[in-house]
Amino acid sequence: MKRSSLPLEFTENVFVLGSGPGSSIPDELDDSWSLVSINASQAVLKDETIVPDFTLFGTSTLRNKPTNREAKDVLRGRKTRTLILFDREKFIDNQRYKLFRLGYSYDRVIFLSTAERLAWIRGATGIAVKDNTQKPSNGVAAVFLCVSYGVKKIVMTGFSLTKQGHAYNNKNRERAHVRGDRAALRSALMRGHPIYTNQADFSEESGVPLI
Description:
Elements: E1 13-17, E2 33-38, E3 54-57, H1 66-75, E4 79-86, H2 92-102, E5 105-112, H3 114-125, H4 138-148, E6 153-157, H5 178-190, E7 195-197, H6 200-206
Parallel strand pairs: 1-2, 1-6, 2-3, 3-4, 4-5, 6-7
Helix pairs in contact: 3-4
Organism: Aliirhizobium cellulosilyticum
Protein name: Membrane-anchored protein
């Protein structure tokens, strides 16, 4: 499988923290682990001194719709080491300004094109995403990014194919991309990628091995 061209360095083990209910991150992670957060998922970390190594923001995260405002509210004052934005680089000044207004800080920011994202999804699953029904969520896409870098153990936490809502609020909003997540994970697991979860319910519904 072709390696992603993004200038990223993962450790051999990675926790991918989704925004769904039931996430669990160990209080202490040693240097062999990286932490990847998705959109506003880092808000569930009780210890605000824990800084994700990587954070992925979808194209809509910084917009001003109700669901996006809820995410931004819990991100105020937070930070990450490397911020990956699913957006076009020509919007860099606008996005930097929004992040400044939000008080969200980062050591560096990387813009990711749609073509790059689709390439690593296809590399991990064999699926050529053609429409939104096949499109996996940002969290599952992040898992496949780790796959493309040869990470030896990828542990998913804060994911669900059946439960609505987000762990950082009680709005119980519908979770999108369930169909795409299910199909993509099934294909990735059939290819033998080292993807695991520490959630028993998610393991049962998705087929992702429980660790």
